[in-house]
Write a structure and sequence with these properties.
This protein has 7 helices and no strands. Helix content is 31%, strand content 0%. Residues 1-14 have low confidence and may be disordered. α2 crosses α3 and α3 packs antiparallel against α4.
Length: 277
């Protein structure tokens, strides 16, 4: 990654990492493919506009997505990549206004999304006081990734997001270990574990390592997941009613959206409680 971008000041404002659909050209509804399943009612190829996409780039069935067979749309979050590509990379010119840019725009979007997801993780790591020993390195990495997001469309297409993730991941793991180290007692290690449908109701998982764990349809009702590392954990249909996720590490909006919670679920302040709960 480039080294010519100076680290941000400690009090730098939080980066714009929340989806702003009003300033996006409906990129998730065009650039990404759908496969007919329980998540999507129809098949759709990458680069093909969804039939529900309106001329103003809004969704014609937004308030009825789940009822109409598109729950996958309610789970997805671009971490602000949509508006970055639309308003910054392509300077506010849509793929409808400039059809010759469409192919490149649709290629850039998934790359930008991965970079913005990394920015989310790095920003969250910088919010952990226990991770202070690696804050300088985290700031530098965050600014390097942010620098990448401002490259030209042609340069962004060539960015290897997986390679960037590989460079950043060790820092995030260090931050996680430092934060979880504050939790007293033995912490469970379920990294990458297959816990699909697992009965974990009321489980004491505080400070656990659940990076990449498969928790699809797991029963986590009433479990204590404070300070648990949930980086990349698959929470689709996981039952988190009454679960304490209030300070779970590296939990993202898509993960929350994919789970089944209620008013008793503790949600981190940086995330939004899903309307369908």
């Amino acid at each position: 990654m480039p080294q010519d971008h100076e680290p941000s000041a400690p009090d730098a404002p939080r980066l714009d990492l929340r989806a702003d659909c009003a300033n996006c050209f409906g990129l998730c509804c065009v650039a990404l493919p759908f496969t007919a399943s329980t998540d999507f009612a129809v098949d759709k190829n990458a680069g093909e506009p969804c039939t529900n996409l309106e001329r103003d780039f809004s969704c014609g069935i937004h308030s009825q997505l789940r009822q109409r067979g598109f729950p996958g749309c309610t789970v997805f979050d671009c971490f602000g990549a949509g508006q970055k590509v639309s308003q910054t990379t392509f300077a506010g010119r849509s793929w409808r206004e400039a059809p010759d840019t469409a192919g490149t725009m649709f290629e850039v979007f998934p790359v930008m999304r991965q970079l913005h997801e990394l920015l989310w993780y790095l920003t969250e790591a910088l919010r952990l006081p226990e991770a202070a020993p690696v804050h300088t390195d985290l700031r530098r990495a965050r600014n390097e990734v942010e620098h990448l997001t401002h490259r030209s469309a042609e340069e962004l297409v060539g960015v290897d997001a997986n390679s960037v993730r590989g460079e950043v991941n060790p820092l995030l793991q260090q931050a996680s270990e430092l934060a979880r180290g504050k939790v007293p007692g033995r912490k469970r290690n379920h990294r990458g574990a297959d816990l699909m449908g697992a009965r974990l109701r009321g489980a004491g998982l505080r400070g656990a390592n659940l990076r990449g764990a498969l928790l699809i349809a797991a029963d986590l009702r009433g479990a204590d997941l404070r300070s648990a590392d949930l980086t990349g954990a698959d929470l689709r249909d996981a039952d988190v009613r009454g679960t304490d996720l209030s300070d779970a590490l590296f939990l993202t909006q898509p993960q929350i959206n994919a789970a089944r919670g209620d008013s008793g679920t503790g949600v981190p302040r940086a995330l939004t409680r899903p309307a369908h709960w």
